Amino acid sequence: MDDRTRALARALGDEPFVDLVSFRADGSPAHTAVWVSGDGERLFVSTFGDSYKVRRIAANPLVAVAACDGPGRLLPGASYVAGRAVVLDRSEFRPGVRAHRAKYGRHFSVMWPARWAFRLVGKKRVWILIDLDPGTPLPPIPPPVIEP
Asked: Which one, of 69, 5, 78, 4, lies nearest residue 42 by Cα?
């Protein structure tokens, strides 16, 4: 991994939110604003295992990420960076949990145990690991549509 990619991973990992763009079967982009953390080389995102973004990533690991606000509006000057995403299995959760706990601190420590209630109704959390690859060309990605 080169220095530019590490710098991008650190910068995006420090953002409170990123717009995670995964691609549908027809190639159209699907935007999702997500919490993100990083370890200086990779990005981690936690989500429900039955979410559409997990299904799209399983079919096509190409993703794009850019800094955004909570509702998903790109921050001024933000641009998309290509990456490869993989859904981690349960044995690989520890780095993502550590990264989120280090970044979000007390908020994460309160929210993480709350996930157990979702397990009672069959909702399971998974971690998405994103390796940035700024050299990979991306298809045109229109900005997300944020409805009031």
From this structure: 5
Structure tokens at 85: 């995403």
Tokens standing for 92? 């690989």
20 is a domain residue: yes
The pTM score is 0.82
What pLDDT, in 10s, does the model give residues 10-67? 999 999 899 999 999 999 999 999 989 888 899 989 888 889 999 999 999 999 999 9
Tokens of residue 107, six digits: 């908020």
Q: Does a structural domain hold residue 62?
A: yes
Interatomic CA distance for residues 55 and 13, integer angstroms: 23
> Token pair of 98, please?
């550590």
Which sign, positive or negative, has the C-alpha torsion 71, 72, 73, 75? positive
With vertex at residue 67, the alpha carbon angle to CA 46 and CA 110, rounded to the nearest 5 degrees, is: 35
* CATH code where residue 120 lies: 2.30.110.10
3-state secondary structure of 142: coil
